[in-house]
Amino acid sequence: MDQQRKHTILMVSDFFYPNFGGVESHIYYLSQCLLKLGHKTEPDLNAFAFKIGLVVVMTHSYGKRTGVRYVTNGLKVYYVPWRAFLMQNTLPTFYLTLPIIRTILIRERISIVHGHQAFSTLCHEALMHARTMGYKVVFTDHSLYGFADVGSIHMNKVLQFTLADISQAICVSHTSKENTVLRSGITPDRVFVVPNAVDTAMFTPSTCRLSCDEIVIVVISRLVYRKGADLLVEVIPEVCHLFSNVRFIVGGDGPKRVRLEEMREKHSLQDRVEMLGAVPHARVRSVLISGHIFLNSSLTEAFCIAILEAASCGLLTVLPDDMVVLSEPDPGDMVHAIRKAIVMLPSIDPYAMHQRMKKLYSWHDVAKRTEIVYDRALQSSDENLLRRLPRYLKCGSWAGKMFCLVMIVNFLLWCLLDLWQPVESIEEVPDLVFIRNEHEDVRIFVFLRLNGFRWRGMDCSQWVFGDAFIPSSGSGFCNRSGKFQWISEVAFIFRRVFDLRQRIRFRFVFRNGFGGLRLFCFVIALLLCVLNSVRFESGVSLIRMLVSFD
Amino acid sequence: MSEAPIFHSKYSYHHDGKAQQLDIHEILVKRSRLGIFLSYFMVVVFLGTNVYFVTTKVFCILILTFFEVNIRSIWSILVCFLLAKFLHYNPVKKERVVIMPAFGVQLETHYWSGRIVRLFVPISKILSSMLNECVTPVTCYWSLALLLRDEGELMLVFQLIRFVQKLQPPLKMLVPVWKALRAAINCEETSIT
Fold first, then answer.
1. With bands split at pLDDT 50, 70 and 90, how would you rate the model's confidence at A134?
2. B130 in reach of chain A (CB within 8 A)
3. Where are the domains of chain B?
4. I need a surface site. Which of A229, A353, A452, B80 has the fewest CB within 10 A?
5. CA A258, A264, A269 angle in degrees (round to 5)?
6. CA atoms of B171 and A6, how far apart (whole Å)
7. How far apart are CA B2 and CA A424, in angstroms?
8. Angle of CA points A142, A146, A148, to nearest 5°
9. In sequence order, which residues have a C-beta less than 8 Å from that of residue A502 and are 6 or more positions away?
10. What ipTM does this complex have?
11. Chain B residues whose beta carbon lies within 8 Å of the beta carbon of residue A540
C-alpha cells in the first residue's frame, strides 16, 4: 500500500448538520468512520492526530453558518453560501454551481464525489459537474418514492438523468434497490446494498430493568400519513381496551397529531396515552428506555433507523425472528401482533439484544463496505464526452436529447472556465493535521476556524455585490421610475458595497492625475445617465441648451 | 538577508528580513497590458454610443425614440462600466507588511499612481494572526487576517476587496508572512509574562 491516501471523498448533499435527520446522521457517521479507516492507513499519525481532507463535506449555508467549518476529528465542511429555497434545498441553477464545485474539487484533490439523497438539488448538480470534469461519482439513495404523482414523476426523471452516467450507486436496503432501479432505469448490477447502522454507543439499554407489571409501548415518529399515524389512531384504543396494564408513550409531531389528540379525548385515554410532542434527538434514548415495546406503524420505509435505535436500547421490535414481530398495515393484525409481543416480553433480555445489534449494525462495517464501492468506482474506465452522451439519449425520446444538450453546454462552460481560471491558478490545500488537546498554537488556529470567525465586511461585500446587481434583490435599475432615482440607486449600491474603511480606497480615484481620466469618464457617464433618465421634455430642452450654438 | 522571491501567476513575493531590525514582506501585483487596453477601449465604446447621440445637433431628432435610447444607454453604460472595472481596476502596485519587533506592524498599500496608504497597528493590540479560508458563491480563497483586542471585526493584512477586482495572493505567499507575524506576537507575549 503506498503512502498516499487511497481516496479523497467529497460528500455532497443539501442536508447536513445543523439540520437533523436520517441523511444528515448517515453522512456524518459514515464520514467519521471513513476518517478513522483512512487514519489507520497512515502510519505516521499518532492516536490523536487525524489528517484533514480525507473526507470533505459540501452543503449549503444554514443561516449564519457559512464558509469552512471543522466538525469532530477535523471533518471539513464547506457551507457554500447558496441560499436554500424550499425545504433546505438549494435553488437549482444548473450551471451556476460549476465554479465553486470545480474549485473545491481541485483544491481538495478529490478523487470520488459521493452524493446523497435524490431530493437534494445540490447533490444532482454536483454529480453532473463532477461527471463533466471526469471524476468518479457514487450516489446513495435514502428514501422510497412513488411513481404516480407529479412530484414523483419529475423527481424520477431528474434521478434518471443523474444515474444515467454514474459509476456506482448505493441503496440502503433491497427494497430501496428495487425502487431505485425501477425509478431510474439503472442496471441492477451497478447498485450496491449497504444498510444503515446505528450508534450503539449512544443507544444503550437502561441499567435497571423495568418491571413487567405495567407494559409501556413507545411510538416515536413523525405523525404523518406515510408513517401510519392513521393506523395508530385505530390501534391504540383497541389495545388499551384489551389489555388493562398497557400504557402508550407517543413522541413526535406532525399534521396527524390532532387526530391522535381527538382519539385520546374520545376514549378518555389521557392517563394511558402520553403525548410528548417533538422529541429532540438527544432525548430519544431517554424516552426509549422508559418503554418495553417499540411500535413502528410506517406504511413504507426504505430503512428505518428508529427501529435499530429501539432495538439497541433493548426494546422488542422489528428485526431477526426472535427480536421481531411483523404485521400487515391493518389495525386488527397490529393488535394481534402487539398481543404476541406482550406475551414474548418476559423472555427478552435487553443487554443481549444490544450486543447482537452491536455486531450486526455498526458504522465501521458500513464504512468498510462503502470503501469497497469506492474501489469499484475507481476501477471504471475514464470516458470522454462523446462516449458518455449515448447514455443520456436512452433516457427518453425528448428528455434524452434535452439531457444531451444540457451536458454539452456544461462541457463548454467547463472549457470556458478552464480558460478563465486555469487549474494552475487554483492552489491546493496543504495537508493539515488536526491534533486534539495538543500544541497550544494549533489549538488556537483550529479553534478560531471552528468558530468561523469572519470579517463581516468581507463576507458582506462579496455577497452584497452579488445581491446588489441581481434584480431579484429589489435594487434593480429598471424597477424604480422617476427622475434622478437612478443616482440614488447607484449611491445606495456603492454605499453597500464599500464599508467605511473601504471608501478611502475609492476616494483615490478622485485625487490624482492617473485616475483623472477614469474620473472624467465616470462623471461623463453619470451625466449621460442623468440626462437619459430625466423626463423627455426637460431632457430635450436641456440638451438643446447644451448643444445650441445660437 | 533576503530570501528568493516566490512567483505565482500575477503575484510575486519578496522578503527582506533583518534590514535595520525590520522584517519586511512584500507582495507585488503585475498588471496585464491587455487588460488596460481593453478597459480603456470599453470606456471609449460606451462614450461613443452615448456621446454620439447627445453632442451632435443633427442627431438630436433621433432622441425622439426616447424609450429605446434610455434603456439602451443605461444598459450599455452598465455593461461597459462593469467590463472596464472588471478587466482592470487594480491600482494596487504592491502590498507591504513591515514588522517592527516589540513595537508594531505597519501595513502599506502602494498604488501605481505613487500614492501610499499606511496603517499602523501596535503590537499590544494584536491578539493573533490567522489564515482564513473564505468561501464565496463562486470561489474559495485564503486570506490573512489579524485578530485585534476589543474589536468585533478582523483586520485584513492584504486588502483583498476592491470594487469587482480581487487581490488574492496564493497561500504559499501568505504563510511566511503569517509565521513572521506569529513569531513577533509570541515574542511580545513572552516578554510581557
1. very high
2. yes
3. 6-31+91-192, 34-88
4. A452
5. 160
6. 25
7. 27
8. 160
9. A457, A461, B161
10. 0.76
11. 60, 63
